[in-house]
Amino acid sequence: MNHPTPLAELRKPLPEALLDALRAVFGERLSTTQAMREHHGRDESSYDPMPPDAVVFAQSTEEVAAAVKLCASHEVPIIPYGTGTSLEGHILALRGGVTIDLSQMNAVVAIHPQDLTATVQAGVTRKQLNAELRDTGLFFPIDPGADASLGGMAATRASGTNAVRYGTMRENTLMLTVVTADGRIIRTGSRAKKSSAGYDLTRVFVGSEGTLGIITEVTVRLYPQPEAISAAVCSFNTTADAVNAVIRTIQMGVPVARVEFLDENGVRSINAHDKLTLPEKPLLLFEFHGSDMGVAEQAQTVQEIAFEFNALGFEWATRPEDRSRLWQARHNAYFAMLQMRPGARAISTDCCVPISSLAECILDTQADCEHHGIIYSIIGHVGDGNFHVLLMVDPNDPEDVARAEGVNARMVGRALSMDGTCTGEHGVGLHKMDFLVQEHGEEAIDVMRTLKHALDPKNIMNPGKIIRW
Amino acid sequence: MNHPTPLAELRKPLPEALLDALRAVFGERLSTTQAMREHHGRDESSYDPMPPDAVVFAQSTEEVAAAVKLCASHEVPIIPYGTGTSLEGHILALRGGVTIDLSQMNAVVAIHPQDLTATVQAGVTRKQLNAELRDTGLFFPIDPGADASLGGMAATRASGTNAVRYGTMRENTLMLTVVTADGRIIRTGSRAKKSSAGYDLTRVFVGSEGTLGIITEVTVRLYPQPEAISAAVCSFNTTADAVNAVIRTIQMGVPVARVEFLDENGVRSINAHDKLTLPEKPLLLFEFHGSDMGVAEQAQTVQEIAFEFNALGFEWATRPEDRSRLWQARHNAYFAMLQMRPGARAISTDCCVPISSLAECILDTQADCEHHGIIYSIIGHVGDGNFHVLLMVDPNDPEDVARAEGVNARMVGRALSMDGTCTGEHGVGLHKMDFLVQEHGEEAIDVMRTLKHALDPKNIMNPGKIIRW
User: Fold this and answer.
1) Of the four listed, A26, A121, A403, B146, which is most buried by Cβ atoms within 10 Å?
2) What would be one Pfam family of this protein (chains A, B) (predicted)?
3) pLDDT beneath 70, residues of chain B
């Protein structure tokens, strides 16, 4: 459904010479089977698969560089692949080419607990890293829901539930190892917490979605595990009350670690999926990190704010297993929603607006969904002004799809008019290229294009994503 | 003293046609007097002045764009100028050209207190912004010491004393208005707190020191004024004890707002300059922000750590006037030190290392200074692993200068071997171009050069800074 022209005319069979050369490097770790290609031509977006012509499994930065050099010499597209959990078609092989699967680059290169840093290969997932950190008393906070690879998270500038307190991959990536479009290997920074040493190459590549180079190693910041953690759930009669409570919390500078919103449709879906009995009303999930005293103080403040906005209760989850169950349910919201309309696919939106406009943006979008009779739910990292509308559509009904895309487009227009962005954390991929132009304007897009042309003059790095050539 | 060749051969008189065209735009706000040119050819570095050929005072982004277009058509260098407080020769007119003084672009464009953001013209200084914010209950934390302009602070990726808690200009700049090298006006982002919308143009220009474009407006994050602030000073018998106390504080995740180190030379100089009576021993200055309870708790923890590392006392400064006096003295350290050796100039270094290496890096550098009989002091934003050695030299004694530069070069080598950076916050300018290559390696520098060539193909934007063409 709903895919752009796969540019079949630009799709040529891979040269035999390239395949032979790749086989010499990767041996059994090169695959051209249909099953393998299809697996790598699909993400969690609503797009139909677009398989690459071949897949190689890299085990080192040097192997990635070798693959890039070979593909560059044949001007064949290269697509990096981590866990395939992106939501905007990032890893679809629009023009064919070679997918470099980085999942076997899953070594934790170095943990420096005394410096609060870790360096990992791009294929290491966030859960793997946190498992390895368990004995150090430290943790890596960025949590986009999926157990994504750190390479992929850097490439999409991911964030998620903890970003309101700890920032996103933008703030938490100290440096990268990157293979450039001509196959050179560079290090983009140092392990110093701050630096004014020249152009910020780290942040040139963070969020570049594989279109400027391939991230093969990531050095991230770590944080001491908080002395105390507590969580609370809190229902409201109206979305406006729930969101306004969040806005007040942020404006008062309460350092909440997480604050998530689910509308009543979202609550209903996770109740069904995770056998919970939450009131089917707009819901906030809070998590507080700090000292025992600090957590108690934060919770007290937030509770007062919640009741000021007519909260129906404020229920604690201090036992780790209760907290895990709640957050797991929150993370399942996407899949839970899919079950609310069997056979449907979800179009996921991702606006982020300045916090004072959040309630208005959500309410207008809800009204638009209701007006068009769409099955939807809204979940959000509301502390950052970021929310997702999951629009459930029948992929075989073009009108249904068009209705949902209409809601999305109007919501993006609304967010941009509020000085917000079309994507808080999912990235642009294939799906938001037009929104990106709308957000930045032709002049700024042209500066982005200048960067792309300069760093990838043959247009072989994940071509056709983010901006048009 | 100590300046690179001013590239006199590249210095041509300004074409009369350009001067006429600039005069048509700027009228009386164009100056070619020697006094004005010399004023704009000097910063707070140890370099001799290198004046531009003309200075224009811009009052709008459109005027900046007009000046850039005119200079571009004549291939004449353009240098942006804020308050002239840079430390690495950033605003010296190495090849002549036109300096665009942005100090008259000093309007606060918009404050959105409910979103915790402010948009200002590039010439607004941090003190001016904070004065305008006073009634909102918010503040802008970045404090590099000098009352720098926000445009200049963004251009050098500045930080300073509060960065340990609030981050640097990298984390706190939401978006910029930039005039590109061909005179187009772009906006690099939105006011959303986070975004994955395409290449991170904001951070391409933050830290680019005027070499890729001219920043004309800056949108920054604001923070609620903390409910409580307290400060404390704490002396130690040894530098090692002081620095190790900081390392432990950071590793434990105590959210200190400021933690500054002064060695005994630094303390002696501010005692003399500010008529203080601090013990002439290695000193830490702390500031704590939070709730009454949170501040008390942080202070208690830090006090315990300090005594564990043999602190000689822990003295409170809770009255605002005492705090101001202490921080003013800290900010005066540079000028105080200048008075310790009349006629001398200061070479200021700016390493930043992963926190666990900080004590070793400082101690080895101290030993090196002592060994060479240099008059110096060390002050540092030690919570970030960042410190400055002020090396006092006789500008007319080449051997003296060479000795100091030797200390600097060895210290940078030491910091890089510890995975640190040659500049935590001052930037590269003229002074650290070789260090930058040493830090990043030729391949990464080449990627930076690719960006420069792509965004400034005529090499007219502050040419000769950061990287060699």
Assistant:
1) A121
2) FAD_binding_4
3) 1-10
